[in-house]
Amino acid sequence: MSDLYQDFTASAIGRQVSRLLGLPQPTRLERYADGAPLVDGVVAVGGRGRLAESLVGILDSLDIAAVQPAAAAPDDGTTYRGLVFDATGLTSSEQLVALRDFFTPLLRSLERCARVVVLGTPPEQVDGAERVAQRALEGFTRSLGKEIGRGGTVQLVYVADGAEGSVTSTLAFLLSPKSAYVSGQVVRIGAYGVTEPGRVTDWIRPLEGRVAVVTGASRGIGEQIARVLRRDGATVVGIDVPQAASELQAVMRELEGDHLVLDITAKDAPQRIAHHLTTTHGGVDVVVHNAGITRDRRLANMAASEQGDRWEQVIAVNLTAPERITRELLAQGVVNPGGSIVGVASIAGIAGNVGQTNYAASKAGVIGLVDSLAAELTDGITINAVAPGFIITQMTAAVPFATREVGQRLNALAQGGLPVDVAETIAWYANPASTAVNGNVVRVCGQMMLGA
Ligand SMILES: NC(=O)c1ccc[n+]([C@@H]2O[C@H](COP(=O)([O-])OP(=O)(O)OC[C@H]3O[C@@H](n4cnc5c(N)ncnc54)[C@H](O)[C@@H]3O)[C@@H](O)[C@H]2O)c1
Questions:
Q1: What is the pLDDT of residue 399?
Q2: With respect to CATH, is domain 31-189 assigned 3.40.50.720?
Q3: What is the percentage of the chain residues whose pLDDT exceeds 70?
Q4: 211-444: CATH topology
Q5: Which atom of ligand 1 is nearest to the CA of 291?
Q6: Where in the chain is the domain with CATH 3.40.50.720?
Q7: Most buried of 59, 85, 207, 380 (most Cβ within 10 A)?
Q8: What confidence score (pLDDT) does residue 174 get?
Q9: Mean pLDDT of 89-112
């Protein structure tokens, strides 16, 4: 499934025509290649705060070359793949000028698909003028995300006091091509539960020896999640409905994984999944609730019906099943300490969408599940969600051409995302070093212009 418009603008004639007509010119995004260095280039580090001193060392531990350019004279011809600014030391609005002083001289030295990360203190953890200044960072990063261009991305990471040692997995993700389609996001580290990271010995295969279960794994985004978690070392247990059994088996055979054929809405599904994971794998480390369906219809036309109720089906698959399965796995202690539970929400659950009251309710409910469990989980178990925007899959290929074109271009990167972009975000949550990454909902939407 290719992006025909992007192929067109990448050609010589297409480039000229689109420039002449003032049409968007999406940059071909760089994606992570298995075994490649996390960052192919230099990252400039600046700012003053709780993290400034340790940043170069943290990046060094990830084999990322980091420099601290002299504030006044950065124009020595060096180009940068990424910029990281520690803003945790900013305690008043007047001090925000430090952002301008660091970024403005460097922005013209950025390479294609550059990564910008600003580190702050969660505003809710500080008071007065400091709270104001820290909250202001969000407007800065979201705007720079819309300005940066050429496939660049910008994120704000709020690091709680005491969680400074837990930023490594997040920087590894946000500075690398793994976060190609994530931009304008606000991430919180150490907001709930533990602030210490779990141990990772091999950053190339951080999930080695771990077990991951993925629902809806036979195709689309779920299949890609299974592939990326396998690449990172996990043994993957794929789940899908009986109609998709042969595709599921084929994918899982290729990934040397295991499979379970069942409908997640079945009454006994949570118990069967718990039983299988306990008896065959001795527990589970990563639980990804990916299976989801749409049954679109305006609410006025969504009356209860005998043959397949659109409202009930969507809520049952997308929300009630993940909720029941999660609670059963936790109640039986099937999720291992340091484990990770991941929900798949949607931009529709945040911004709303015509014809999707059922779907958007279910996906907003997934965010509710994250909110309700993040604070009560113990043993370093986390719960987070991804909210994909326009992802190019069989599902979106069926959307009429004009709607699809508009849907794909209305984001800061002017293109649709790929299933692998969602999968990489989930692999970051699942990383054992991400135990302080808890209670987040990160949109994988290229910073969509619509909605919240
Ligand atoms: N594609 C997008 O642009 C997009 C955007 C936002 C969110 N999402 C979400 O991402 C997830 C994956 O989407 P996709 O595009 O890959 O969809 P898809 O339809 O290609 O795949 C969904 C998978 O879930 C399985 N499934 C459905 N009902 C099930 C059930 N009751 N029990 C077990 N398995 C079941 C299907 O058989 C299928 O394999 C969904 O939750 C979807 O809502 C997708």
A1: 79
A2: yes
A3: 94
A4: Rossmann fold (3.40.50)
A5: 24
A6: 31-189, 211-444
A7: 85
A8: 98
A9: 97
Average pLDDT over residues 411-435: 97
271-282 residue pLDDT tens? 999 999 999 999
Ligand 1 centre from 312 Cα, in Å? Answer: 16
pLDDT in tens, 300-336: 999 988 767 999 999 999 999 999 999 999 999 999 9
Is any atom of ligand 1 closer than 6 Å to the C-beta of 342?
no
Q: Which atom of ligand 1 is nearest to the CA of 395?
A: 15
Residue nearest to atom 38 of ligand 1 (CA): 216
Q: Ligand 1: does its nearest atom lie under 6 Å from the Cβ of 344? A: yes
Looking at residue 9, its pLDDT comes to 74
- Ligand 1 atom 40: the closest Cα is on which residue? 292
Instruction: Determine contact, residues 446/200, Cβ cutoff 8 Å.
Output: no
What whole-number distance in Å separates Cα of residue 153 and Cα of residue 225? 22
Q: Is 263 in the pocket of ligand 1 (CB under 6 A)?
A: yes
Angstrom distance (rounded) from CA 450 to CA 354: 13
Ligand 1 neighbourhood includes 222 CB (under 6 angstroms): yes
Query: Residue 113 to residues 141, 160, 353: CA-CA distances in angstroms?
Result: 16, 28, 30
pLDDT tens across 176-213, in order? Answer: 999 999 999 999 999 998 899 999 989 999 999 999 99
Q: What gap in Å lies between CA 379 and CA 374, rounded to an integer? A: 12
